[in-house]
Write a structure and sequence with these properties.
The complex is a heterodimer of chains A (173) and B (304). Chain A is an all-alpha fold and 173 residues long. Helix content of chain A is 61%, strand content 0%. By secondary structure, chain B is of the alpha+beta class. Chain B has 2 domains: 104 residues, no CATH class; 159 residues, Thrombin, subunit H (Beta Barrel). In chain B, the strands form 2 sheets. Chain B has a 6-stranded antiparallel barrel with strand order 1-2-5-4-3-12. In chain B, strands 6-7-8-11-10-9 form a 6-stranded antiparallel barrel. Classes of the chains: A mainly alpha (173), B alpha+beta (304).
Chain lengths: 173, 304
């Protein structure tokens, strides 16, 4: 049997302001003190990956670079560390977007995992080369958690696009 | 001729090719990485970006500090009373020393004058609150709530009520970054109180410190207190740094492996005192400069 693209629903086009808003919200989530807990995903990487796959033309490498710079400064990391990781993440995600979108959501999560893990590994290698201390294997749990919440994140970020074109006051959403 | 070099039709305006963009941005970020690591000359870029991210970070910290505040509030009167009695006792215990401190200092000053030794520097500083630990998992740093506006400059040491916490390494307009003494790149020149032997203590990166370049047969015991020796011109002499936790002496190595634990609450939140920078030290004599090794200063400087 021929595999088919599972989402049969036609979505509204994504709004630019929502893409930007969600990226900033992810940045704010990254700044929260919870970021020190092990297993908390890098929200910026996750949301950037999502939009790079869904809307490669809207959230491109320019955003990846700027968010990376902001993260570097806020983290007190070496400048360029997050930049490079996010850039490559965005590039690979955008390049693979046509292929990944073909899979059902649960398999998309598996497809996204190596991308997120790769961006984390890039940062690890860069800092170890620069003489940083090894932060422990828990550093790599973040991407695993991020890919397990890929389904709810997709639903959440696509929510504005689920709205019907014609407003019906009797319909809740 | 005009017909040949026509531009592509404008319907598919896509900007530069993705690979070209990627190369461009990757080149910039790699250049930033190398410059920041090797030359440290992009601090202005960092400071200007921090002007934007710093307020956002402060906002993001608010829920956490509100929870802390509420917890403090709810913990109630009893805890406060306990703490108060505890503090009073502690004050009483230190009172004899403190009361005589002024007397001792003046006596010390007089004696130093008699001996024609340079006067001891007085410690003064600025109290700052720790806002949060830096998110970077590859290093050990904290961020305090005072920066350039409060006159903080890079290089100042920071202490808490027990001992040395770290050193200011980066400054921003309204905050500053302190590298803890337990960071892998941080070194503090110290002196063992019991016998006055000098050495340098290095951070290990896992919350402990290591005393290096001490010969295996040296007179060192577990529990020895290490204080700053003040030879670096950064830390004032006499502040407690660490206590020796374990010593491994192996015949195969020239030096003993000595693990120390920091005395100050280095990895905890609270308040720190950022000490004012020290007065400039006299330059070391020429022949000293050529020497390598950190086992303390040569005899000439030590006998001053």
């Amino acid at each position: 049997m021929q595999p088919t693209f599972s989402s049969s629903r036609i979505l509204l086009p994504a709004r630019s302001w929502f893409v930007i808003f969600s990226l900033f919200a992810a940045l704010l989530l990254n700044f929260l003190p919870t970021a020190h807990w092990p297993g908390i995903p890098d929200w910026v990487a996750l949301v950037l990956c999502f939009w790079s796959i869904r809307e490669p033309r809207r959230a491109g490498m320019g955003w990846a670079f700027m968010l990376g710079l902001a993260m570097d400064v806020a983290d007190g990391a070496v400048l360029g560390q997050h930049c490079l990781a996010y850039l490559l993440l965005s590039y690979v995600a955008a390049g693979q977007s046509r292929r990944i979108l073909w899979f059902p959501l649960s398999q998309q999560a598996l497809q996204v995992l190596p991308i997120l893990l790769g961006s984390q590994l890039i940062q690890l290698v860069m800092r170890l080369l620069a003489g940083g201390e090894f932060p422990g294997w828990s550093y790599l749990i973040g991407p695993l958690v991020a890919s397990t919440i890929w389904v709810p994140i997709t639903f959440l970020l696509l929510l504005p696009q689920y709205q019907p074109v014609e407003r019906d006051d009797n319909r809740p959403l | 001729m005009a017909g040949i070099d026509h531009a592509p039709p404008p319907f598919f305006k896509r900007g530069p090719a993705p690979l070209a963009l990627l190369t461009f941005y990757v080149a910039i970020s790699l250049a930033l990485f190398v410059i920041d690591l090797r030359l440290r000359s992009v601090d202005l870029v960092r400071q200007s970006i921090a002007l934007v991210t710093d307020p956002v970070q402060r906002v993001a910290q608010t829920p956490g500090s509100l929870v802390d505040y509420a917890a403090d509030y709810l913990r109630g009167l009893q805890n406060l009373l306990d703490e108060n009695t505890h503090l009073k006792q502690a004050q009483l215990r230190t009172a004899p020393n403190l009361l005589r401190l002024e007397h001792l200092e003046s006596e010390n000053e007089r004696l130093r004058k008699l001996l024609a030794v340079k006067e001891r520097e007085k410690a003064s500083g600025e109290v700052a609150k720790i806002m949060y630990t830096s998110r970077d998992p590859f290093s050990r740093r904290i961020v305090i709530d005072k920066g350039q506006q409060a006159g903080i400059i890079a290089g100042q040491p920071a202490i808490d009520e027990a001992g040395i916490v770290g050193q200011v390494t980066r400054i921003f307009p309204f905050s500053a970054e302190i590298t803890l003494i337990t960071d892998k790149d941080q070194a503090v020149p110290v002196q063992i109180v019991r016998n006055g032997q000098r050495s340098v203590v290095f951070g290990l990166g896992n919350g402990d410190l290591e005393l290096r370049y001490i010969p295996a047969h040296a007179d060192i015991k577990e529990g020895d207190l290490l204080v700053t020796s003040g030879l670096d011109g950064i830390y004032l002499p006499g502040f407690p740094v660490a206590r020796i936790a374990s010593i491994e002496r192996e015949n195969t190595y020239t030096f003993a492996r000595i693990r120390c634990v920091p005395i100050a609450a280095v990895e905890n939140f609270g308040e720190v005192l950022v000490l004012a920078p020290r007065q400039a030290q006299p330059a070391p004599p020429e022949e000293v400069m050529g020497r390598s090794g950190n086992t303390g200063v040569p005899k000439k400087a030590a006998s001053k």
